[in-house]
């Protein structure tokens, strides 16, 4: 990293183009520090970058860098209360109690998926799904009268993602009797849309149990 800083300083002083940093320095010091979305775009630069970024070693480097810093938070949900705490050894005792915006006990809230501070949660008593940001006290109930936005344990799986237009979306896979319905919810438009996915019939049986971690 010191070498990189030196190169940038020299270039700014002399008002000339940056020297060739070399692929090793770019892959080990620059790309692992970029946000996940930028890393995804970097895959399109060339085949070498795609191969490197897709490797397990790069994924581990990127995760280590993304986990650093005080911006990372941990949400702890107990039987009667919720707390938010910062990561890091020195900050483990700094907790902030939060109040739920929905009228259920904290123990009746299931966390289904998370992304960039957003959580998709399910209320155990009604099976309604909500998009919740506990840091800014924002919550949206995404269930509707058409039975969209209701989670069924053991049969469904959900995952948050960001599409090419920077819209936060929720993908909801629902498995019925010999059928699989896949719906995508747009946070920008607040609408659900059915999309085609996994049409092979052997995915429709109870022999497959969806896992949120595997899905993401």
How large is the radius of gyration?
A: 21 Å
> Total number of helical segments?
6
Overall 3D form: globular
Task: Spell the H/E element sequence.
Answer: HHHHHEEEEEEEEEEEH
DSSP summary, beta strand count: 11
Question: Assembly type of the shown chains?
Answer: single chain
How widely separated are the two ends? 31 Å
As residue ranges, the low-confidence spans are 1-14
Structural class: alpha+beta
% residues in beta strands = 25-35%
The level of helicity is 10-25%
What summary fits the major beta sheet? 4 strands, antiparallel
Look at the structure and give the mean pLDDT.
Answer: 76
Which strand order spans the largest sheet, edge to edge or round the barrel? 4-5-6-7
């Amino acid at each position: 990293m010191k070498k990189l800083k030196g190169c940038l300083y020299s270039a700014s002083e002399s008002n000339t183009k940056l020297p060739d940093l070399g692929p090793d320095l770019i892959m080990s010091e620059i790309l692992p520090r970029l946000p996940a979305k930028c890393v995804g775009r970097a895959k399109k630069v060339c085949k070498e970058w795609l191969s490197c970024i897709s490797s397990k070693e790069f994924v581990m480097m990127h995760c280590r860098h993304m986990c650093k810093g005080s911006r990372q938070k941990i949400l702890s949900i107990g039987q009667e209360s919720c707390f938010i705490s910062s990561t890091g050894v020195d900050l483990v005792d700094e907790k902030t109690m939060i109040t739920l915006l929905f009228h259920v006990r904290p123990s009746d809230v299931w966390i289904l998926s998370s992304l960039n501070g957003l959580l998709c949660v399910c209320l155990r008593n009604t099976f309604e799904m909500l998009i919740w940001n506990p840091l800014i006290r924002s919550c949206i109930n995404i269930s509707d009268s058409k039975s969209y936005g209701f989670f069924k344990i053991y049969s469904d799986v959900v995952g948050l993602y960001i599409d090419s237009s920077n819209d936060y979306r929720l993908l909801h896979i629902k498995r019925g009797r010999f059928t699989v319905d896949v719906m995508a919810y747009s946070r920008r438009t607040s609408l659900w849309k059915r999309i085609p996915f996994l049409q092979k019939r052997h995915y429709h049986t109870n022999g497959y149990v969806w896992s949120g971690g595997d899905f993401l």
